[in-house]
Amino acid sequence: MTIRPITITGEPVLHRRAEPVEVIDDGIRELVADMFETMDAARGVGLAAPQVGVGLRIFTWQMDNRDGIPSRGVVINPFVSASKAPVGDPDPHDESEGCLSVPGESFPLRRGEAATLTGLDLDGNEISYAATGWFARMFQHEYDHLNGFLYVDRLQGKWVRKAKKAVKANEWGKPGLTWMPGQDRDPFGHDDVDDDYEDDVIAEGGHAGASEDELAR
Ligand code: ZN
């Protein structure tokens, strides 16, 4: 297994629709093993194949939940169907997401409270899960990656401008940029001992400060 570099916004593979997996062979199994190792090294709760530079329809996750879904999993050729996002302005405290491909940044957006995931596991068996709350948000975030969208593409109002400024300030938005989990400084501050845990953003999902109640919501 190998930790792979994580692509940063501007890399074309992040901004185009990923291709279906035709055959689950040794190459796919190796890619998935690498994705798990990369996700763990980056402390992400989810990771989509385009984030390691591979334009295939695969994502992994690592997230505790009360939905009866395995806390660690992978889906191949997924379909995610979500309930309609509530109208109104998003709450910056409760609805902020982070993305390993927009490292260190966090912006709020509304998502559906419930989502169903169908697809194949690594053995080619059909899986089907119904998720709520943060788990549903993560499924929607990862599925967006496979369709060429980042969460910052879905922002509204003043958050559009703030995200654009952040991308510009970091000199992202061009091809070829990556960061290396385990080597580069953790962009979401997971290594900082004196960090305020409540304000910690879990990349690819939401706040580490989300309570059990919020997880169960
Ligand atoms: Zn992401």
Automatic annotation (TrEMBL):
> Which GO terms fall under molecular function for this chain's record?
metal ion binding; peptide deformylase activity
Q: Which reaction does it catalyse?
A: N-terminal N-formyl-L-methionyl-[peptide] + H2O = N-terminal L-methionyl-[peptide] + formate
What the record notes about the co-factor is:
Binds 1 Fe(2+) ion.
The family database entries (CDD domains) matched by this protein are listed as: Pep_deformylase
Q: Which UniProt keywords apply?
A: Hydrolase, Iron, Metal-binding, Protein biosynthesis
Q: Which GO terms describe its biological process?
A: translation
Under Pfam families, the record lists:
Pep_deformylase
Give me the residues that bind Fe cation, please.
C99, H141, H145
Enzyme Commission (EC) number: 3.5.1.88
The active-site annotation reads E142
**Family of this protein:** Belongs to the polypeptide deformylase family.
Could you identify this protein by its name? Peptide deformylase
Q: Which organism is it from?
A: Knoellia sinensis KCTC 19936
- Which lineage ranks, top first, belong to the organism behind this chain? Bacteria, Bacillati, Actinomycetota, Actinomycetes, Micrococcales
| Gene that this sequence comes from | def
